[in-house]
């Protein structure tokens, strides 16, 4: 798709997002702007359903109070019941996330593109990949990217007992700390499949659960143009985009980023990483 076409589609999406009104765009996590964090709805496991923004009626089904994190002392992470799905607040801010890596075949290309446009992103890494590629985590740290915990071996957490979930998460935080320099503050369950134990252990380890708003489904290798189109269709203020830099053949994901990132920036989006807020 040409860039102008992308921009035109973009505007149409923005008009749709505006029509949702204030309630439609409220929710989720705080970007680096000081807004409060609040939980949003969980995606289904594997979750194409998370691609579109929620309809206003779905927001109305939620209670009007109780969005905010439970009272917590500074440095303590609340135990959530749902993952965060998008950025809250105003402004044309989006977050790009890359899962399952790092993979030396694809991650350096993605880092190069992000660097070219001076853009930061999030990488939800698997411990076993991180342990093999600590240099890539060090580069992510140098270039200001946020590294999140995506478990050690990418299992379906809902099929595991507490002890195994803890090992999967704890080992991964340890290897991230060693290679990246700090412990992760975010985690994402493989397949978007969270359970209560995962929320509790994540909080215990100081991590907030982050899902996504737009799934590029890049792992199905649908073609670079389709991936670019999915980002264009889904782009809106507060959107979190899911792609992959590992776990299979990912050259389409690499090429797609080279096209949709400059297009998003040209459309006036601020592509950034979220900042943790305690309330
Ligand atoms: Zn994954």
TrEMBL record:
<dbReference type="InterPro" id="IPR011330">
    <property type="entry name" value="Glyco_hydro/deAcase_b/a-brl"/>
</dbReference>
<dbReference type="InterPro" id="IPR002509">
    <property type="entry name" value="NODB_dom"/>
</dbReference>
<keyword id="KW-0378">Hydrolase</keyword>
<dbReference type="InterPro" id="IPR006311">
    <property type="entry name" value="TAT_signal"/>
</dbReference>
<dbReference type="GO" id="GO:0016810">
    <property type="term" value="F:hydrolase activity, acting on carbon-nitrogen (but not peptide) bonds"/>
</dbReference>
<feature type="compositionally biased region" description="Low complexity">
    <location>
        <begin position="33"/>
        <end position="51"/>
    </location>
</feature>
<dbReference type="GO" id="GO:0046872">
    <property type="term" value="F:metal ion binding"/>
</dbReference>
<dbReference type="GO" id="GO:0016020">
    <property type="term" value="C:membrane"/>
</dbReference>
<feature type="region of interest" description="Disordered">
    <location>
        <begin position="33"/>
        <end position="82"/>
    </location>
</feature>
<dbReference type="GO" id="GO:0005975">
    <property type="term" value="P:carbohydrate metabolic process"/>
</dbReference>
<protein>
    <submittedName>
        <fullName>Polysaccharide deacetylase</fullName>
    </submittedName>
</protein>
<keyword id="KW-0732">Signal</keyword>
<dbReference type="InterPro" id="IPR050248">
    <property type="entry name" value="Polysacc_deacetylase_ArnD"/>
</dbReference>
<keyword id="KW-0479">Metal-binding</keyword>
<dbReference type="Pfam" id="PF01522">
    <property type="entry name" value="Polysacc_deac_1"/>
</dbReference>
<feature type="signal peptide">
    <location>
        <begin position="1"/>
        <end position="28"/>
    </location>
</feature>
<feature type="domain" description="NodB homology">
    <location>
        <begin position="92"/>
        <end position="272"/>
    </location>
</feature>
